[in-house]
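A student in our group prepared the protein record below, which I am reviewing. I have pasted the whole thing underneath without changing anything:
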Amino acid sequence: MRIGIFASDDNLNTLVERASQAEADGFDSFWLPQIFGVDALSAHTLIGATVPRIELGTAVVPTYPRHPMALAGQARTVSAASGGRLTLGVGLSHQMVVEGMWGYSFDKPVRHMREYLSALVPLCAGQSVAFTGETLTANGAISVDDAPPVPVMVAALGPAMLKVAAELTAGTITWMTGPRTLGDHTVPTLVAAAEAAGTGEMRVVTSLPVAVTDDVEGARARAARVFSVYNQLPSYRAMLDREGADGPADVAIVGSEAEVRAGIERLRSAGVTDFVASEFSTDPVVITETRELLKSLL
């Protein structure tokens, strides 16, 4: 199982520094979210040009605000800047954001994603498209010199979206999804759909909060505060319910070195191919001990 680092910061220079440190520490990948701050792909263009080895990923870029041709242009620019190290993770976002903040319809989101990927995936591979669906049209190609193909992955949680991911992309990216759900639902659903479609092996990139600490109660209380919004978002709440978790604190991997190591090993046993650690503590000792434990897994 490959080990990566998930980072989020409003300061571009800090993100570059964190990517450089993750590479120096030997991690396999460095992932950025696309929320309401620094543009992830713009940041990765800079990181890709200055940090020479580590894989760069987005977890995830919402589809609705960006036409697939526009997103493919951004992704292929990062690919050119980084020598082909970008993995483009995309997702739906959430109804409250799509409709309440952006003013788009969230009707039939699985249909939207299938149509979006039907245009995006070939464009990211350097191919031209001539696609007309119910929700979007894309005709043309994206020309970026020296841009290797960009693999695309989807934040897929439910069975219908996992089927789309298996049929059209390189795999899925999960967040706030625990080992029981991954092993009993996510991975087998994705693998079965890929086998039926004949699309080959799937990548499963899983991110969870992680902290090596002897103050487990305090760490879980912090996780509950920092990640409280995921209790309110239906797609994540469904995964927490499936896991039997009251909230994000229950799926955070916290405890001693041995306990955290065992928690990450459970993800490997569930079929996860990449664990991307969200280091959420602000305690310098916990930060150091967590990073050292993660490095020992490389």
About this structure: DSSP finds twelve helices and twelve strands in the chain. Residues 179-197 form the longest helix (19 residues).
